[in-house]
Amino acid sequence: MLELVVEQGVHATPMSQVAKEAGVAVGTIYHYFKNKEQIIEEIYSMICQDFGVVLMANVPENDVKKQFEIMWINLYNYFVGNPLAFKFIEFVGVPPIISSEIRIKSIPHFIHIRDFFLASILSKDLRDVSLRLIMQMSFGNVISATRLKFKGELEMNSKQIADALEMSWDCIKNPQKH
């Protein structure tokens, strides 16, 4: 389903094609899911759960810049290694396809990430701006770097990745402290 929806779009992917690709009867799918939207919501939830785990992998304690760098690189590597997940989030994981209600249900997957940013704002290591804005600016840069790579506009070699990461850090760090 993930591959078909990314390639064709939600509305252009009939359940009969999903069943054929999965090697099951359409009725089998409807036994587990009430409709196509529920499958899309499950995929979205699974990807969000992956994000929550992947972003925090190997994040050290106490050094805010190093923590941010590892989270940024973790997300970039996840997207590069999982292009279907990246494309799904880009094209499908947005309203109106994914409702606000489903997005809210995914918040628990991001608690540790939210807590990192909130604590870093409160400790004045990061700019004192809206939590939503700082998270969007941070991870929006990861998405932009990934787009550049996938579109072949930049190789995104180690120097370019380091530059993108440093620019992302410069965007959110508290200039009075760093």
Can you put this structure into words, describing what you see?
- With 178 residues, this protein is mostly helical.
- It has one domain: Tetracycline Repressor, domain 2 (Orthogonal Bundle).
- It has 10 helices and no strands.
- Helix 1 crosses helix 6, helix 5 packs across helix 9 and helix 9 runs antiparallel to helix 10.
- The radius of gyration is 18 Å and the shape is elongated.
- The termini are far apart.
- The mean pLDDT is 93.
Oligomer: single chain
CATH topology: Tetracycline Repressor, domain 2
| H and E string | HHHHHHHHHH
Portion in beta strands: under 5%
Give the end-to-end Cα distance, rounded to a whole number of Å.
Answer: 46 Å
Q: Number of helical runs?
A: 10
Q: Name the structural class.
A: mainly alpha
Radius of gyration, CA atoms, in whole angstroms: 18 Å
Instruction: Tell me about the largest β-sheet.
Output: none
Percent range of helical residues: 55-70%
CATH class: Mainly Alpha
CATH superfamily: Tetracycline Repressor, domain 2
User: Which descriptor suits the 3D outline?
Assistant: elongated
CATH level-two architecture: Orthogonal Bundle
Number of beta-strand segments: 0
Give the tally of structural domains.
Answer: 1
Mean pLDDT: 93
